[in-house]
Design a protein that fits this description.
This protein has 178 residues and is of the alpha/beta class. It folds into two domains: 67 residues, no CATH class; 94 residues, Rossmann fold, CATH 3.40.50. The chain contains six helices and seven strands, in the order αααβββααββββα. The protein has a five-stranded mixed sheet with strand order 4-3-5-6-7. A two-stranded antiparallel ribbon has the order 1-2. Helix 4 crosses helix 6. The longest helix has 15 residues. The termini are far apart.
């Protein structure tokens, strides 16, 4: 008698009765946080209402590490144009493009800031994978939905996120601000 879960595997009849014991032994040998999904939220420090903070997990850290950024360290920049980065590419995420933009000194000099709220954005930087190594980016005015600039670039000879950041800054220095 074959069970649907084990159809592809040949397990001798003498060992079939040991399979449930092996599963129970595996679960029992795991530490408490090994199988649970909410262990990080239990270990987080409690936030007070007066301190507005945002938690962010970085991919290079261990599973139990959390960085807390205090939102009141730097006030909002009202003069800056807010940029929302949207990437539909599986290989180049929006967070990587944001990082490359923030590392460019011209980005801050031109008065740009990154926002994660689409409704607060003045500009939307869209990136999508076109064909093989080609990527298409476009900068759209969020209020009028006019395309301000666009371009096509290759992933050969450098990172796509770095090239997008460089082209964005270059194109935005040419175009007049609001």
């Amino acid at each position: 008698m074959k069970t649907p879960a084990l159809q592809g595997y040949a397990i001798p009849r003498t060992l079939r009765h040991l399979l449930p014991l092996a599963v129970v032994a595996f679960i029992a040998s795991c530490p408490d946080g090994c199988l649970a999904q909410d262990t990080v939220s239990k270990s987080l420090p409690q936030q007070t209402e007066t301190a507005a903070s945002r938690q962010r997990r970085t991919s290079s850290e261990s599973d139990d590490a959390v960085i807390i950024f205090d939102a009141k360290q730097e006030g909002p920049r009202k003069a800056g144009r807010r940029v929302f980065v949207r990437s539909s590419s599986l290989l180049v995420r929006g967070a990587v493009v944001e990082d490359k933009l923030l590392k460019r000194p011209e980005f801050q000099q031109l008065g740009f800031v990154i926002t994660r709220e689409l409704s607060e954005a003045d500009l939307i930087l869209e990136l999508r994978h076109d064909l093989f190594t080609m990527y298409v980016f476009s900068v759209v005015d969020a209020k009028t939905e006019l395309v301000l600039t666009s371009g096509k670039l290759s992933s050969l000879g450098g990172t796509v996120a770095g090239k997008v950041a460089k082209r964005f800054v270059k194109e935005m220095t040419r175009s007049p601000g609001p």
